[in-house]
Every structure is written in C-alpha cells, then in structure tokens.
Amino acid sequence: MNRTVVILVQIGALLAAAFCLFFQVVVIPQAVPAEAALDPVIAQVEGRLIVVGILGLVCVQVVLIATAVLAQMSLGEGIFSRRAFAWVDLVIAACLAASALCVGFLVSTAWLPPLTPNPDGAGDMTDVSLLFFCMAGAGTALGLAMVVFVMRGLLRRAVTLHDELAEVV
C-alpha cells in the first residue's frame, strides 16, 4: 500500500478514535439524561443506554486502532505474517461484542412494562424505534464480523501462498 494512504488511514483512525472518546466522556453522559427528561421510554432505559453507548464506542475504537495497525503492517511484508491474524481476530471480536451489546440491550428492553398511552391518544413510537435500532445495530455488527471473517480467510490463503513463494525463491 502507498505510504501516503497508510498515513492518512492512520491519522483518520486516530482522529475518529479521539472523536469517539469525546462522545464517551462528554456527549453520551449529558445527552441521554437530557433525552430521558423528555421521553419516558428513554427514562426507563437510561442507565443501560449510557452503558451500551459507551461500550459500543469502545468496540468502534478497537476496530479503528486495529485498522491503523494493519495499515502500518501493509507497508512491508508484515501483513503476510502470522501476527496480522491477531489484529484481524481483534476486529472480529469487537464486532461480535458490539452485536452482543445490541442483543443484550434488546433482550433487557423487551421485558419492560408497557407505558401508558399518551393523553392525546397518539401512539408513542419511541419504544418500537428503540427496538428496531437495536436489531439494526446487532445485524450490522454481525454482518461486519462475517465480512471480516471472510477476509481473514483470504488473508490466510495469501499468507500461505506468500510462504510457499518464499520457499521457492
């Protein structure tokens, strides 16, 4: 890979990880309680929503850092070594953990008692949209894990071919 592209990927990954850290420390702890004051459905799951939001961003940070390391390894022959698999496995584990967080939140939210309808008779769609958001998050994270798992298989094949070629040469 081109050195300039690797440096840009690393800078972008580190900036995105820092942005996630800002959200973990400042935005989520302030925004969720403010939203909970306005919406009784969010108020029911406020603590869980904060924990899942912060831990979900930890999963994103792990993927970003592993991507930066793998980009650095791609500059030389390091990407064709066995140690690259540890970073790819870390990405898969982070995606599966994010999916598990979403499923755990979905399961814990599914048994909440229903709220009384709004006084004006209009239905409150917050609880439904929250459940769909959890399902979409779990599906997306699981899908990403599957894609990276397939790419891991391609990397394994490339490493095998690289090792065979090194023996021939």
In short:
The chain is 83% helix and 0% strand. With 169 residues, the chain is mainly alpha-helical.
Description:
This protein has helices at residues 3-38, 40-44, 46-73, 83-110, 126-168. With 169 residues, the protein is an all-alpha fold. The longest helix has 43 residues, at 126-168. The two termini are 23 Å apart. The model has no long low-confidence stretch (mean pLDDT 88).
Structural class: mainly alpha
Rg on CA atoms, Å: 21 Å
Q: Say what oligomer this is.
A: single chain
- Given as residue ranges, the uncertain stretches (5+ residues, pLDDT < 50) are none
What's the total number of strands?
0
Helix fraction? Answer: over 70%
Distance between the termini: 23 Å
Tally of separate helices: 5
Question: What's the mean pLDDT score?
Answer: 88
Shape: elongated
Largest sheet: none
Strand content: under 5%
What series of H and E elements makes up the topology? HHHHH
Please describe the topology of this protein.
Blueprint: H1 3-38, H2 40-44, H3 46-73, H4 83-110, H5 126-168
Helix pairs in contact: 1-3, 3-4, 4-5
Label this structure with key terms.
169 residues; mainly alpha; 83% helix; 0% strand; elongated
